[in-house]
Amino acid sequence: MIAEFLAAMKAIPKLVDAAEMIANGIGTMNRRQQEVEAKERLDDKNRLVHDFISARSKLRDTEVQRGGGDPGDPPGGVG
After folding, report:
1. Does a structural domain hold residue 1?
2. Domain with 20 in it
3. Nearest-10 Cα torsion for 68, 69, 72, 78
4. How many domains, in total, are found in the chain?
5. pTM for the full model?
6. Is the pLDDT of residue 45 over 70?
7. Coil vs helix vs strand at 71
């Protein structure tokens, strides 16, 4: 019985090492997931900004083709 206890005690450092490796692996996976999510948010923001700029450009082109408004109005909708 004492021999079994001593054998189990020898295994404890290996179990601690294995637990640390698992924890490190989980931490790495979490960091990678956060990086992926951050990239997705950045891509969504960039897409939104691009769409906004494109829509504004199309609107401006439409206004130019129509003549913009009253002849006495300042250019660019100011005033």
Report:
1. no
2. 10-60
3. -70
4. 1
5. 0.53
6. yes
7. coil
